[in-house]
Amino acid sequence: MTSIAISGASGKLGRMIVQSLRTITKQPLVLLSRTPDALIGVSSDVEPRFADFDEAACLVDALAGVDRLILISSNVLSPDGRRERQHRAAIDAALAAGVSHIVYTSFLKADSSPLSALTADHVATEAMLQESGIGYSILRNAFYDDLALQFLERADADGRFVHAAGAGGVAYVTRQQCADAAAVAVSDDFLGRRTLDITGPKAISMPELAALASACRGRPYTAVQVSTEELVEHMMAASVPAESAALLAWIDDGLANGASEPASLDFEMLTGRNAPALVL
Ligand SMILES: NC(=O)c1ccc[n+]([C@@H]2O[C@H](COP(=O)([O-])OP(=O)(O)OC[C@H]3O[C@@H](n4cnc5c(N)ncnc54)[C@H](OP(=O)(O)O)[C@@H]3O)[C@@H](O)[C@H]2O)c1
């Protein structure tokens, strides 16, 4: 029987993928992690194996007998190319081990994002997959709904969503939705190459987020548009460190320029299910 491996299986998304897979297939699952002992008992009929993207030598053994791989992008964010090297090591090992299909979790608009510093590793990894000759499903996930919850946390003090995102919307996706998409993509026997946008059902602007927060939380919220400079000042006045404030304002500017829209129907097409609406 075809064996499926999941990298990053101890992470938040990885654990959801394992649970989602167990509801749709009995195929053997190999759970890859730097801490495989932590995965014992996560689900029945799974085989935890040690795998570290920074140790290329261990990866071919880790993928022995695996036919299809879910490669969850690593959570290393550094400007020194480490994440790109990690993903290359994983893809090279998959080729050497005879893996026939890789499901890779990329980022929405990877190749055209105004937030290119966030997506550069994904662009490089997508190019590696294209050059590899291997079959793939690239799932370009939108921003997790964590981002909406962060915006809400910032707004909670005075009910104002102070932002610099203009009319730009975010097609927030839940991790569970990303997990369900990955589980279907790895187990539906697709053999070719596809790139799908995994988004929520609607791109939600800041004024719409404020309205949704008002409805969900039973108190009034409003959206207040400012410049990126004013947003940095506003956050620093609320004790956000300067570096984080600059990063968050940069993300708002990217959103104003369409970084996380429009919503896509690819999730429905892939899974036959509706994308869940954002809940705050
Ligand atoms: N779309 C979005 O809004 C958004 C936001 C944040 C992150 N992301 C991306 O989505 C991914 C999954 O999200 P998440 O919340 O599940 O992240 P997470 O809980 O931090 O899990 C990430 C996993 O990456 C694995 N990893 C890191 N370094 C590794 C290495 N050297 N070798 C092997 N595996 C390594 C870890 O696996 P082990 O510890 O088991 O080795 C970890 O469990 C993140 O890694 C990130 O690339 C997307």
Give keywords.
binds NADP nicotinamide-adenine-dinucleotide phosphate; alpha/beta; Rossmann fold
Please, could you describe this protein's structure?
The protein has 280 residues and is of the alpha/beta class. It has a domain at 4-142 and 175-199 and 263-271: NAD(P)-binding Rossmann-like Domain (Rossmann fold). The protein has 10 helices and 9 strands. It has helices at 12-24, 56-62, 82-97, 116-132, 146-155, 175-187, 206-217, 228-237, 242-256, 266-271, and strands spanning 4-6, 29-33, 46-50, 68-71, 101-107, 135-141, 160-163, 193-198, 222-225. The strands form 2 sheets. Strands 3-2-1-4-5-6-8 form a 7-stranded parallel sheet, sandwiched between helices. A two-stranded parallel sheet has the order 7-9. α3 runs parallel beside α4 (116-132) and α8 (228-237) packs antiparallel against α9 (242-256). The radius of gyration is 20 Å and the shape is globular. It starts with a strand and ends in a 9-residue tail after the last helix. It binds NADP nicotinamide-adenine-dinucleotide phosphate.
At CATH level 2, the architecture of the domain at 4-142 and 175-199 and 263-271 is: 3-Layer(aba) Sandwich
Count of beta strands: 9
Structural class: alpha/beta
What Rg is obtained from the alpha carbons, in whole angstroms?
20 Å
How far the N terminus sits from the C terminus, by CA atoms, comes to: 41 Å
Question: Strand portion, in percent?
Answer: 15-25%
